[in-house]
Amino acid sequence: MSELQNPNVLMCGTGEYTTGWTGSGASTSDKKIGVVALTLFDLRRLGKVADLSMVGVSGKKFPEIRQHLEKNIAGVYKDMDVSFEEFPKSNLVDTEAYKTAIDKLSPGQAVIIFTPDSTHFPIALYAIERGLHVLVTKPATQLLEHHNTLIEAAKKHHVVCWVEHHKRYDPVYSDARAKAAALGEFNFFNAWMSQPKSQLETFRAWAGKDSDISYYLSSHHIDICCWMLDGIAVPTRVVASAATGIATSEPYNCVPQTEDTITLLVDWESVKSKTHKGTAVYTASWTAPLKAGIHSAQHWYYMAEKGDITVDQAHRGYDLTYDDTGKSWVNPFYMKYSPSESGHFDGQRGYGYISIEKFIDAVRSVNAGRTQPSDYDKHGLPTIANTVLTTAILNAGRISLDEKRPVGIKNDGDLWVLQ
Ligand SMILES: NC(=O)c1ccc[n+]([C@@H]2O[C@H](COP(=O)([O-])OP(=O)(O)OC[C@H]3O[C@@H](n4cnc5c(N)ncnc54)[C@H](O)[C@@H]3O)[C@@H](O)[C@H]2O)c1
């Protein structure tokens, strides 16, 4: 066992979640200054990480990104250094710059991936095979087969590989999970998550082409449901249904195959009782009304043998009204951007921040020989091994839509497979 060291960290992706800077300027969502870079700048200030780097596809974006971070982070919070090394350099455009950036790191250092869904797998695998610890955003991968490959690769290279399912650190969700454990056999789960139609402009580059709204939003509640049902029930069959016509019409004009609202109907079977079966319905939409006062609607209902749980995480009893924009419900429990009384960043207790900090803590602990990557599988954390059923359901949902058939989920020895 040795002293804790501060790893260098590479951020893959330079967009909304990493910096708050999108293709069309500063994000207009609830993440105007992003989450990943801000958290890592603060963790560097607090002495948990060392050098930071960032990789995208186009080096041309970096002058604007740096200006944005300088003004809205360094200019707002005290003692915040927003420097980082960039890839690709010199205004180059290179879709494989992530390889150059990863090659600069040494084994034991870390990579945080927030790039389009279809790129998660190749980037994560490349990093793991070089002995780097990986935190990849949801959906970890689009195919179950790829998820299984990452589980194996992380085991083989003895690295921490987690999925950034930050809702597991939301105090309400984690408390609800603990309460559900005492409610007996699972019976019914119904989840709704949506964002306003304006997101179809923000997501124009990939909406309907590279991924769908189920992968993008239902991944959150599917993961929470799988986490709550760990040791209680397993999913066995998925049937998907989609509403269409809004995303593909004026003014959004998304590609013809873009769905508006996707519903996955999932059969679950008890792991202890032969007679108990449950049903889950996961719905996600990116054609919700504008001006609803919330960025993400997110609520669910859980019913079990001995009781039920209702959660509405869009309306937390805290709302504001402005003369020009009307009412809005806000959520400082996720990212608190208002500074502390000393003028420093003050969001260390937000679950967006905690999700990244816990990963960095695990990396430092494993590097110092204090813990093993597999220890975290036993702690209910969103490790790549603990999140396999989330990907199984999402992948089965996509196949069900494309092939218009139910898709089975089965445990084949040590491996989860689709049928
Ligand atoms: N924005 C959110 O609120 C949010 C929240 C949770 C998870 N996510 C996940 O984050 C991912 C997208 O990130 P975002 O929201 O910041 O989107 P974004 O579109 O704003 O940014 C994507 C970034 O990825 C980069 N990129 C694309 N291909 C790449 C490659 N081959 N190598 C390196 N970089 C590449 C782009 O240059 C861009 O900087 C998605 O998987 C999404 O599900 C987003």
UniProtKB/TrEMBL annotation:
A single BP term in Gene Ontology: NADPH regeneration
GO molecular function: nucleotide binding; oxidoreductase activity
Gene3D superfamilies: Dihydrodipicolinate Reductase, domain 2, NAD(P)-binding Rossmann-like Domain
Domain Gfo/Idh/MocA-like oxidoreductase N-terminal positions: 59-165
UniProt protein name: Gfo/Idh/MocA-like oxidoreductase N-terminal domain-containing protein
Listed GO CC annotations: cytoplasm
Domain of life: Eukaryota
Taxonomic lineage from the root: Eukaryota, Fungi, Dikarya, Basidiomycota, Agaricomycotina
